[in-house]
Structure formats: C-alpha cells, structure tokens
C-alpha cells in the first residue's frame, strides 16, 4: 500500500472514527430510492472484491447483498441513515466480521474512478506523495487528533501511588507521540498503572506500539504484532521502539469492556501475551482485521478490512472471539476490582507497619464508596 493511501485512510479514520463499528454518522433522514440503493450495493460489492482481506468472503458477501436487494430486503429502509444501518448489519452478519460497516458521509471525498483511468493516470496516482502533500495530510490528521486530546481522556494519580490513564483511541506516533510521552512522564514514578480501554474503539497499530514501548525496560526489545496485507502479500512487523521514553516497569492492569475494539484489543492482547499486564473486565469486541473507510457512491462509505493481525506468540489473533480478561467482571466494576487488587497486593508485600496502615485506610475508603473513582462512560 502506497504512503498516500495509508495517510488518506488514516485521515478518513480520524474524521469518521476509526472504529468500523461506530455509529453511522451523520444521521440523515433524506430519502433514498431503490436505484440509488442498488448503486451503493454495486459499488460496495466491487470494493469488497478488490480490497477485502478474504477474497472468498468478499465474493460471497457481495453476491448475498445483491440478492437481498433483488428480493426487496431494503425497500423499507427509505432514508440514507436507515439504509446505512441495515447494510452495516447485513455486512457483519454475512461476512462474520465486526469491522465491516457502511455509513453516510456526504461531505467526504467522492470515490476515485481508478478503473476508468488511463495507464498514465494510474501511474501518476500511484506515485509517492510529495513532502508538501504529506505535510498537508499530517496537519489535517493532527487537527482531528488534537480535538480528541490525542486519545488521552484522563490521567490521574490515585491514593496508594497508583496511576490511572483513560485511553479513548490510538493515533499515529508522529501525531500523538509527544502526548503519550507526556502522559507517561506523569505516571513514571508511580508503583502501579491502571490503563483503561473500556471506552476505546481502536485506532492506529503504530500508536499501540509506541505506547506499549513505554512498558518494557530499556534494551528489552519485544516483537508485539504482525500485520499481513492481502493486496501485496506483505507483512509488517511491530517491535517496541527504543526511543520511546520514559519507561514504566511496574505492575499494569488493563480494563476492558464489550466495547473495547480493534487497535485497543491489540493493545490488551499484546500486553497479555507478553505477560506484561493483568486484564480485568469483559471480553472485547473481536475485530482484528484493520482497514479503512472507502468512498462508494451517493455519499456513502464502507469500512473494509484490508489486512489481518498475526500475533508472534500465539500465531493467531482475537477475530470473532475477542480478548478474554484474566479477571472477568462487569465493565462498570472493573476499575474498583483492579484498584482493590493492587492495594491488597501492596499491603501483602509491605513490611512497613505505617505503610500497611495507610494502604488499609485507603482500601476501606474505596470499598465503602467514600473515595470516588473515575466514572466509567462511553463516548461516541
């Protein structure tokens, strides 16, 4: 995949939420007729067959969608929003892939008529972008990411010398790296870290790698993940980054929910398979095949997975099954359970009576509800 395509897809992901299972947006009550529906389905089928990571599934899904349209399955979905919702539901059911989705986004760029271009036009389009074009695309990505606080919703020091980071999405290291470094600088001296991914729908694998690089000692290089791209049959390896600083080597507890998806699942899975963290909460979404938003026609776009993750330790991923927590509790209770577990562990290991008494007092306040923990909420 060319750099222009990578940057463009990343920008579209930031603009429209990189989680394919996010709600269809914007909501539109504009009527859509059968001819327009058929054109969207035809364009979707073509894009699936040319881009989807599993060609056999793409062909089956495209045929099934066309058959449903021919049988009038979408005749009652008379608005753009309703049609996008119905199409997304069918995509997930037929393709058995929770990353697949369709949304109505009329303000985004129209589809490229690549197949209708001359050989010279295709050759020109395939050239790597200029430095100015790259800078412009990165600037747009930076603005989109900054509006979301670079994915860092909250950093807090909890009583007992325990830090808490609420991560809502993962961006490109070039965009979010400095923010990740700053957050880690605030928590580097604490004794334990709680990483909250319960409301994180995903983002960029490179961002996951950059954050996780802070969680291993200097010189401890780890092979975290591989992504196989079906288009050119290439594999990209993700290793910890030596320059990522500072490092945190204390205990880590990762909070998960049924809404934790995509790159956030990779974050949890990588830490779990590297035996670097304890996962507390619910089994995650189960979407392991990364991709991007592809323009169709009539203002519709489709999220199509174009690659698949391969963990170097398990040689598989979390597609369909999700990432299973080490401690299974409801998402709402996960932070309290993790916090209490850490405090009890600290008390057990401490040989200082004053420290034990202080921890016991904190634990009593937490268990009685007198200390208010950061609230769990979902953002869309």
Key words describing this protein structure:
2-enoyl-CoA Hydratase, Chain A, domain 1; alpha/beta; elongated; 380 residues; 11 helices
Describe the structure in your own words.
The protein is an alpha/beta fold and 380 residues long. The protein has two domains: 3-144, no CATH class; 150-289 and 312-368, 2-enoyl-CoA Hydratase, Chain A, domain 1. The protein has eleven helices and twelve strands. The protein has helices at 3-16, 34-51, 55-70, 80-95, 119-125, 131-146, 173-187, 205-212, 263-273, 331-349, 353-368, and strands spanning 101-104, 152-158, 162-167, 192-196, 223-229, 234-239, 252-256, 278-281, 291-295, 300-305, 307-310, 327-328. Helix 1 (3-16) packs parallel to helix 6 (131-146) and helix 7 (173-187) packs parallel to helix 8. The chain is elongated. Residues 1-26 and 111-126 have low confidence and may be disordered.
Strand order of the largest sheet: 2-3-4-7-8-12
| The CATH class of the largest domain | Alpha Beta
- Residue fraction in strands: 15-25%
- The DSSP helix count reads 11
In short:
With 380 residues, the chain is of the alpha/beta class.
């Amino acid at each position: 995949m060319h750099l222009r395509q990578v940057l463009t897809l990343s920008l579209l992901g930031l603009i429209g939420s990189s989680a394919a299972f996010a709600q269809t947006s914007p909501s539109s009550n504009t009527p859509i007729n059968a001819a327009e529906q058929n054109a969207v389905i035809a364009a979707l089928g073509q894009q699936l067959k040319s881009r989807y990571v599993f060609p056999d599934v793409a062909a089956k899904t495209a045929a099934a969608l066309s058959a449903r349209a021919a049988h009038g399955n979408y005749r009652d979905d008379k608005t753009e929003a309703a049609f996008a919702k119905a199409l997304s539901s069918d995509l997930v059911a037929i393709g058995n892939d929770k990353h697949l989705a369709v949304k109505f986004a009329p303000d985004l760029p129209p589809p490229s008529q690549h197949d209708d271009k001359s050989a010279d036009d295709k050759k020109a389009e395939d050239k790597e972008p200029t430095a100015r074009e790259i800078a412009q695309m990165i600037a747009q990505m930076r603005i989109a990411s900054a509006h979301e606080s670079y994915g860092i919703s909250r950093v807090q020091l909890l009583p007992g010398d325990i830090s808490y980071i609420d991560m809502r999405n993962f961006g490109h290291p070039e965009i979010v790296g400095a923010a990740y470094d700053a957050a880690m600088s605030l928590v580097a001296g604490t004794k334990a870290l709680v990483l909250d991914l319960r409301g994180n729908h995903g983002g960029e694998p490179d961002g996951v790698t950059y954050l996780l690089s802070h969680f291993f000692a200097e010189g401890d290089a780890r092979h975290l993940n591989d992504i196989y791209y079906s288009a050119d049959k290439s594999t990209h390896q993700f290793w910890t980054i030596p320059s990522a600083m500072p490092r945190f080597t204390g205990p880590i507890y990762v909070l998960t929910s049924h809404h934790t998806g995509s790159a956030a699942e990779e974050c949890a899975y990588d830490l779990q398979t590297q035996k670097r963290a304890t996962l507390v909460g619910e089994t995650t979404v189960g979407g392991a095949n990364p991709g991007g938003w592809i323009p169709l026609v009539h203002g519709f776009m489709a999220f199509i997975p174009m690659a698949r993750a391969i963990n170097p330790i398990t040689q598989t991923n979390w597609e369909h099954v999700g990432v299973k927590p080490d401690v299974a509790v409801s998402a709402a209770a996960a932070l309290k359970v993790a916090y209490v577990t850490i405090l009890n562990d600290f008390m057990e290991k401490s040989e200082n009576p004053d420290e034990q008494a202080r921890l016991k007092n904190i634990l009593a306040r937490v268990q009685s509800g007198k200390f208010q923990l950061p609230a769990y909420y979902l953002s869309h």
